[in-house]
Amino acid sequence: MRSRAIAALFTALVTAYAWLLLRAESQGAIAALILVGIAAGILAMRTQLLRPVARSLGSNERFAQGLAFAAVVVIALALRDDDFALLLLTRVLIVIVACLGLNVQFGYAGVVNFAGASFFGVGGYTAAVLASSARLPHLLVLLAGGVTAALAGTVLLLPILRTRGHYAALITIAFALLFRTFLEVNDALGGPQGLKLGEMRIGPLRFNDPISAGPFEGSFYLRYIAVALVLVALAFAVVQRLDRSWVGVALDTVRLDEIAAASFGMDIARWKIAAFTVGNFIIGVAGALSAFMIGFIAPNNYSFAESLIFVSILLLGGIGSAWGLSLATAIVILLPEKFQIIQEYRFLMFAALVVLTLLFRPVGLVPRPLRRLVGPPLS
Amino acid sequence: MSASVIAQYVMNGAMLGMMYALVAVGFTLFFGVLDIIQFSHGDVVAAGAFAGLAAWTLLTAAGVAAPAVLLLAVVLSAIAVTALLGAVVARFIVLPVKGAPQLNVLLVTLMAGTVLRECLRLFYPGGSQPKLFPALLPTSGWDIGGFHLRFDNVILLVSGALLIAGTHLIITRSRLGLAIRAVAQDEETARTMGIDFRRVVLVTFALGSALAAFAGVIDGLYYNEVFFGMGLLLGVIGFAAAILGGLGNLYGAIVGGFLFAALQTIGAVALPFASAYKDVFAFGVVILLMAIRPTGLIGERASERV
Amino acid sequence: MRFAAAALIAVLSFSASAKETVRIAFVGPLTGGNSAIGLGGRNSADLAVRLRNADGKSKHQYELVVLDDECKPDAGVQMATKAGSDRTIVAGVTHYCSVVAMATVDTYHRFALPVIVWGAVLPDITYANDFKEIHRVNGTMINQNETNAKFMSERGFRKVAVIHDTTDYGKGHNKYFSQFFQKAGGQIIATFGVTADQQDFTAELTQIKAQNPEALYFGGLTPIGVRVRAQMDKLGLKAQFDGTSGIVNDDFIKALGPLAEGALAFREGAPAEKLPGGRKFLEDYNKQGYSNPPEAYGPFAYAAAELLMDAIDKVGPDRKKIVKELANVTDRDSIVGKITFDDHGQNTVPAITRYVVQDGKWVTWEESEYAAGKRKLTNGK
Which pLDDT does position A95 carry in this prediction? Predict the structure, then answer.
């Protein structure tokens, strides 16, 4: 019970911090907040202060997820009329979903995918085309985005199954470059000028109208946040369920030792196909929602550089770790926005930061814990 | 299509292929000794070209006008800078993550390349725009029908071929080459035989990067223009070429380089769709080829270790 | 010593805060392939703000909030939302990339933030909507190419090949040029789209050479323009090089050296140095010691910032009032010529200036030795 209270207190602290950071305007306040965050992080790592919290959260995944869910809701409501902060928050949530999909591929089955942004784009373009031409309910359009992305991935299945390591990496890199060029050259999908999407609708709900219910007034982004949050919860559930089941064990085996897996009679190809397809599906759904929220898509959004950002998030967070990638996504998306002051130097700083993290903390911020299928979790 | 036009395409493709091959050889050398992909290689090429350009700018400002002297200075400073850069990347970026998963190495070198590229853009004077690279070779040539053959292109092509041949000689005939091959075969055994592993790695990276310097200078002399972002695509294509041929295989890298150039030329010229699809075509074929020959056309140096 | 400095700062900031600080946003590409133009635009807008503050006549102290749209629609919408939702920002000088400008018009409209586009050329940005908040000081690609096509056919060029980049900029230019040129009786013998990061154009140029065009129209920006022009020479392709506003900058000439001679290009607005204040702009710009030149669209960013500050000085820092005030802009003098906004907020009088490179400089056609007949364009035209 006590450990739960500590965990709740910890979550409240983190929530307050996130709220402050999202609200902060002046560069001084932002710099101070970030320094405090870094100091707290280092302190926590050095002193093992967070041990009890980690243990409490680790022992009860559902409790932890509930806390995180509540935290996001609290932040969203606290920021209800701050459009920009809410937009950032939605973006963080959507990218978390996409990275969870990527995590199934990289983190579990060990299938590399350097074309994450491309599949994100397939979802986005599907949404744009379907929303304007077909009278499909928009929730189905989101699903369709995922399905198309998964289908697009099947093109790469054969070469990916036959190759491994750097050879497999090349295939997805080639695909990422090819995809972007294709979108730009091809006029059927809007070409370089991109496509415009109307607002999202679910039933009578129009997403782009501001919210006002009695005394409560809020930004229209709240609706997108709600959908994004549901998607995150679903993706988390799927990923966590995978991880905790024999499927997860099977995927790990495929990643760690293909030969051993094969000699135990496992069908490696099947597992890889499953992971790659499920991953792309999740990425595609995220891409579709992102397209609705931005209201406009163009090839520039889905370049190889964007894919690299996804992969960076995965490694920064700690490969295979769902919580780690969530933290890393928040950092990677929020920091550059909060640091507009460094303007043209932002990309340089980002790249340097990734290099330093990989050199000095190669396991990532929150490494994936060992799984414990039976008995109490390892401390 | 007339014979002279076809000759022109072949010449264009050959120049491209030579540059790709020079970059790909670097990738394959690094993979040989360390089993890693040094993905900032393309940006090291760009850095080499800019180093050469800087030497030219300084010397012409000092009043030197003799093309031979300038050319020598350009080449030497490009080599010096990239060799140093290659060794620094090996020492401080690659060796520290040697034991880490492949993915980490790939990403860390990609990001190191980004740092390099952004530094060129932000800190080289006027680096965000393309820069004029001087024409230091004789520019006259012959017009044979539609085929325009220029002396400088011939010189570049021949010197590129000589460089690759020279690298091949170093690898197969010299003591250094022996050490490199020993490390590539088996690091542990090489160490026990008294080979200084770290030195061999650093020297290999310096060597491979010096080749990149040539690629950068040839690129500059051929296009008469260098650009901070030129390394990105050149790096990816060089990597694709090295993989196509089979990693760790010198001949494979050369074949891969020329093959990719051929694909691009065919994609632009001989196919029924718009030429802008040429990269879509070239990368599409690469994916297809990988499905057919998963370890490259010539095959990787060693069989899969279990 | 330290104390004295602190005291000085305190005094300075006090005297500054005596005036109300008004914030306007600048949004453009500061990173990536288009960053040179973005940085030039930012510096120019920054210059306008600095000069206004130094001048001291204004009731307000201005502050420029600089945001990077990375030339990507999602980043652009994010920045537009940031500027729009920040109530202390009252107006914006926005976007060079057309695709980003297209993506953000809805956002500015939603937040009722008056903006002036300083560089994006796609017609739809102002004409595909009726938003009162959206204005543009530079012309669209339509005007530019109409003049270009007319000029080329009058000089007697009949067979023209086209190379354009596959971004919205290049594609749009290709569309309007081809349309106007064919209407004027010319013939487009080949069209090639090329991607923005492509370095080798020999395959395309060899094909073009085989068809023997009299001129090559290039729709794109300096980096590719330089490569295309240099490689034309490598292949011995002798055709008149005819470019767009995207290459009217010193870098084009610097990167090509003598090869740039005789290249044509067209741009909206009169050349800065010919206009009241234009020469002063260039002098002031150089005095500030920015590390990048203003580039082709810097003067437009400067003019846009000036227009906004004029409006704010007149009606105060209120978004709605600024929108109303901007609707009244007619025949306003600026460093890019007279500015008049039509009912779509589009500047209607951008005179198109014809440029030709002569002795390492962009010279207006009227003043060039080419017009006087002392020199001839390629193929003796």
Answer: 96
Tell whether B225 lies on the interface with C, counting CB pairs under 8 A.
yes
Alpha-carbon distance of A48 to A60, in angstroms, equals 19
pLDDT score of C14: 46
3-class secondary structure, C190: strand
The interface pTM score, or ipTM, of the predicted complex is 0.89
CB C350, CB C337: distance < 8 Å: yes
Contacts of C85 in chain A (CB under 8 A): 82-84
pLDDT for residue B1 is more than 80: no
- DSSP H helices in C212-261: 222-234, 250-256
pTM of structure: 0.89
Q: Which amino acid would we find at residue A262?
A: A
CATH fold label, C142-268+354-380: Rossmann fold (3.40.50)
Contact (CB<8Å) B8/C192: no
Residue B214 has which token pair? 């040539």
- Cβ–Cβ < 8 Å for A149, A281: yes
What's the pLDDT at C380?
A: 74
Strand pairing class (B225-226; B131-132): antiparallel
Once rounded to an integer, what is the mean pLDDT over residues B14-29? 92
Answer whether C203 sits within 8 Å of B265, measured CB to CB.
yes
Q: Indicate the burial class of B71 (C-beta count within 10 angstroms; 0-12, 13-18, 19 or more).
A: middle
Residues of B whose CB is below 8 A from A174: 240, 283-284, 286-287
DSSP state for residue B305 in the 8-state scheme: P
Q: At what angle do helices B250-269 and B230-245 cross, to 10 degrees?
A: 120
pLDDT score at C374: 87
- What is the residue extent of each domain of chain A? 1-78, 81-360
Using alpha carbons, list the distances in angstroms from residue B165 to B21, B32, B160, C166: 12, 18, 9, 39
CA dist A155 and A276 (Å) reads 11
- Reading the block at residue A96, the tokens are 């978390």
Residue type, C203: A
Per-residue model confidence as pLDDT tens digits over C109-124: 999 999 999 988 888 8
A93 in Cβ contact with A233 (< 8 Å): no
Structure tokens at C226: 């330089």
Question: Residues near B220 by Cβ (< 8 Å), separated by ≥ 6?
Answer: B49, B52, B53, B133, B226
Summarised one tens digit per residue, pLDDT across range A324-355 is: 999 999 988 888 887 766 777 888 888 998 89
Mean pLDDT in residue range A21-44: 85
- Residue A364 vs residues A97, A326, A335, A356: alpha-carbon distances, Å: 19, 12, 17, 11
- Please state the domain extents for chain C: 2-139+272-350, 142-268+354-380
The yes-or-no verdict on residue B304 having pLDDT over 50 is: no
CATH number of A81-360: 1.10.3470
Using the Cβ of A343 and the Cβ atoms of chain C, whether some distance falls under 8 Å is answered with yes
Tell me which of 3.40.50.410, 3.40.50.2300, 3.40.50.300, 3.40.30.10 is the CATH number of domain C2-139+272-350.
Answer: 3.40.50.2300
Q: Do residues A175 and A122 make contact, with C-beta atoms less than 8 angstroms apart?
A: no
- At B81, list the tokens: 């800078």
Higher pLDDT: C329 or A213? It is C329
The topology under which CATH files domain B3-292 is: ABC transporter involved in vitamin B12 uptake, BtuC (1.10.3470)
Whether pLDDT at A376 is above 70? no
**Per the CB < 8 Å rule, is C98 touching A343?**
no
DSSP summary character for residue B258: H
How far is A88 from chain C, CA to nearest CA, in Å?
A: 8
The whole-angstrom separation of Cα A122 and Cα C258 is: 46
Write down the domain spans for chain B: 3-292
By CA distance, what is B95's nearest residue in A?
A359
Distances (CA, A) of B39 to A177, A330, B30, B302: 16, 27, 10, 22
Query: ∠ CA(A299), CA(A302), CA(A303), 5° rounding?
Result: 95
